[in-house]
Write a structure and sequence with these properties.
With 801 residues, the protein is mainly beta. The chain contains ten helices and 45 strands. It has four domains: 138 residues, Galactose-binding domain-like (Jelly Rolls), CATH 2.60.120; 104 residues, Immunoglobulin-like; 262 residues, Glycosidases (TIM Barrel, Alpha-Beta Barrel); 228 residues, no CATH class.
Length: 801
Amino acid sequence: MNHCPLARWVALPLVLCFLNAVDPRQAAAAAVDRLDLDGAWDFSIHGRAHRTIMVPSSYAPVGGATFERTFESPGADGRRAFLRFGGLVMTGEIWLNGVHLGAFGPWTPFTIDVTRALRPGTNRLRVELSDLDGFDPWNRNWITAIPRFGGIIRDVALEWKPAVYIENARLDYKLTNGYRQAACALHVWVTNTESSPARVTISGAVARRDQRFVFSAVINAEPGSSAHVIPFAASDVALWSPETPNLYELSVQLDAGGRTDRFSALAGYREFVARGRDFYLNGQRYFLKGLFRHDIYGAQGYTLTRAQMDAEMSDIKSLGVNFVRLGHYPHDEHIVERAAREGLMVSGEPPIFGLSQKDPRVVEGAKFCLGGLIRRDWNNPAVVAWFLSNESGTDLGYMKEMSAFVRGLDPGRLVSIVDNTKWSAKDVPWEKFREAGIDFIAQNAYGSAFDGYYSKIAQLLPPDLPYMISEWGGTSSSYEAVLNEGRFYLAHSRQARPAAPGLAGISFWEYEDIPMARWNPEGTLHWSLVDSHRVPYETYYALKTLYTGKTYPPPRGRCIPPPALEQLPQPAAPADQHAGYREIDLSRAVNSDAVLAGLRAVSPLAWPGHLTLGEVAVSGLPFHLDRQLVMASPRMPSVRIPIGARASEVEFLGQVCFSSLATKPPASIAGLPFLAEVSPGIESPPPFWGYPQSGDFGELAAEYVIRFEDGSSISLPLRNGIELANYAMFYGLSFIDAVATDTRRALCWKTNFGAKKYQMRLFSWRPQGGAKRIESIELRLRNHGYVPMAAAITVQEYSSD
């Protein structure tokens, strides 16, 4: 099994070899076959600001980070060694002992053969993460999943296998005889790393309780990877459904002359198909009562504990839900397993949201993420459909290519694409869907119960494609609003009106609150049932009433939690508390009005607001904050600030760069006044730079030139990501941690455009070898791609005592 080189992206399967409980007598042997690499890793930003971070975990994106750790290993020991990642975000490049192993995409599990790179004894593993988006050849433009987090978000392990091993296995079947029997075909992928063919016995069973359907075959495994099909029969099968989630265990064993390997996975028998305008489960017409879910838990981001995942899926089941749309990216494998055990049908999709389906990078990225997800979950009976993208249109070429790709991997599941276009008689895509092999229509149709859209589209629905509303609810944030809208859809379902065009399913957006900058004053999207810690809103009881058919009145209404505290300037402390410090008067140097007037012709800019002005204390230091600032720009590349003092310390407040920021929403989203722009690429590339959104790390942007009264001077560099960071602490709709490794955040606040957060950073300079009298400090621009600013300066006057 080769690694995935940058030039050719291949999603490699995460082989599920250790799902069975280990017998205590075999514990020692099992430990030799697997080395857990979770735990404490070293974390740095381009080799600076080192700290310890736990793996798996998530963090607010910083633009890019390095994860490193050492581990002890017996080496390959005559077997093949594999490094397995359950998922990372956003994208990463992997090195082991200095050997480059490949570049890999987000959320998707991947496996790397590291036999040649692994050493006996101490080994060093390094992961370079790009945590905002992708890297070349995918680049930032191929993925828009929100909200963003960074991290190695799922388990990492080193595993050993024999020279001939099972790469993956998939159980296909066709139910016959009134869904009592199954004609089965086990597809097994075997890899032979030796130079000559190997005679291999493949055997195993699909089993539950007292049932055991066995299979066995002798195959000839040629060198390389080969696929083999083993037919067998199953009778009196226990069907899986949301009402009766009967599960089986698929176990496969390989024996190549005494060298053995095993594979195991959850499995189950069920038939879920689209026929006419309806879905059918095990031969019965079935209406989807769905719910959208993000794989996020508060500040934990994409890393949930097993207990949290178990409780959440159990809670979703209690709402009367039978289908969960797992979007907009691959969710944790344990979520899909819990769905199977709880009796919840699910779907999966790649992180393709609002992107050009004609871009080859988008297609390539979609195949990587969706391909890895399919190979991981293709035996799980809970998975009933794969979506090709979300709200990115319905390009025929993209749909044909992706549909063929999905069916080549998994021919037994439905394929669809989620769109939000408000279709009319002139542009309905039914013919394109048929040509591309799309099995059903999935549309995000917010408010269509009351704006007349559903009544119009119902007259255009085809007789051969089921129609489901894949997202509804949204601003329906009260008990009555959710009930009213949901009851409309149920009244227009195929269950209620079997003789007329109607809905085959609905899916409420969404289960939990998610952080989303600039959406509202709190920076949280509340179109949900529970808050980020799973405390119910009244909408929770409305959906439960709607889906269960029983009445669940809400408790007394709960308030939306207040926003997090900000780091704001404090009123000035008594003068004696800041004895020895003097705030510098910048009034003769401020130039921000003139600078911004020139910059607005290039790009609209946000202006700092809601800050206490005048004499203030920041990080225990006195400053004078004015509405205007000192800024360097291509039109005004140098600003001189008079000082006239001997200083043992100079503190600069600012060290941030303006970037391109719209300050009012486009007309298309006028109903969301706090949403300035949906896409982070609204101006790509941005006209101004700042870490981590743009510009190269470590690039010299500007400098402070300190001039002394004796005529000498020194220069203090202001480098992107080291001393300087972006003014904005958000990217698109996601919060980020806009850091500079050698300065610290001193202020953090919001403006009047939603929850968009901004920052200022503190930069300290202390003279070496005694203090000379400073005549002036000049802020000088060194790179016209940047617009750095200084908000305030204070000096500690030199004392010889």
